[in-house]
Structure formats: C-alpha cells, structure tokens
C-alpha cells in the first residue's frame, strides 16, 4: 500500500484518514480512474494508514515539513531513514553521523535558498 499512497502523492494528491473514512485531497489531480482505484482498495489503504509504522512515518514527515520548513518530498525521504532500523553493515556511530548530517542539510537548505 505504501507504493499506492506514494503514487497518489506523486500526482499532487493525498489519501488521508478523516475519522474512520478515507478522504482524497486534491482528487482532481489524479488520473480519471485514480479515484475509483482508491475506492476499490479503501479497506487495505485504511489499514495501512492506521498502522503504527505509517503513523510514526507521517508524524515525523509532518514535523520535518512544517516545523523544519522542508519540501514534502525531502521530509518523506528523511522520515523513511528515521523510521528504519540501522543497516546491518553500518556501524552505530556511522549511522548516527549519517542521520545527523542529513538533518543538518535539510535544516540549512531552506535558509540557503
């Protein structure tokens, strides 16, 4: 379902939970069959959006985007790294350095622009 949600977002739309219902934000930006496809898979999409992993990801991405002023695409990419476990081949200090460096780059980029 992550791929489906990412695809919807790539068009400039979004799928969100509004209480117990799914809502498509900017539905008009989806291809003609997009809304019907989302409706057909609404139960699986809702379960995905309610999962603990997705809730943590969305919360982190929102903080990076709104509090940090980063573009949504950057916020999502960084949130993916923050919500994943350290790769087995990476040293704990190297992983910490990598995440800190990414965060610093995101923090400084909007100011430089």
Furnish the topology, listing elements before pairings.
Blueprint: H1 2-10, E1 14-18, E2 21-25, H2 34-40, H3 42-50, H4 52-67, H5 72-83, H6 92-112
Antiparallel strand pairs: 1-2
Helix pairs in contact: 4-5, 5-6
Would you kindly provide a written description of the structure presented here, covering whatever features stand out?
By secondary structure, the protein is mainly alpha-helical. It is 65% helix and 9% strand. It is built from six helices and two strands, in the order αββααααα. The chain has helices at 2-10, 34-40, 42-50, 52-67, 72-83, 92-112, and strands at 14-18, 21-25. The longest helix is centred in the C-terminal third of the chain and has 21 residues, at 92-112. It is globular. The model has no long low-confidence stretch (mean pLDDT 85).
Largest sheet composition: 2 strands, antiparallel
Strand order in space, largest sheet? 1-2
**Termini separation (Å)?**
34 Å
**Rounded mean pLDDT score:** 85
Question: Helix segment count?
Answer: 6
